[in-house]
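Troubleshooting: if your tokenizer reports a length mismatch, compare your output against this known-good record of 73 residues.
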Amino acid sequence: MIKVEFLGPIGKAPLEMEADTLADVSIKLKEDSTLREWLEKCAVALNDTMVNDLGIVLKDGDKVSILPPVCGG
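Known-good structure output:
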């Protein structure tokens, strides 16, 4: 089981799911119409390390963070 957390203004509670790869997580999250728009813009971190390869294999206890774009000064 992995944990997926949504940071910033996404406003979605963390959830747990079974997934073998980040691609599996992406497919499952895209089933939620309220997340589809966010997922196109967001960065992804795995266990607090930024990643961009959906082929990464996940293990039990991993934490995937969905990070929306931010601006500031």
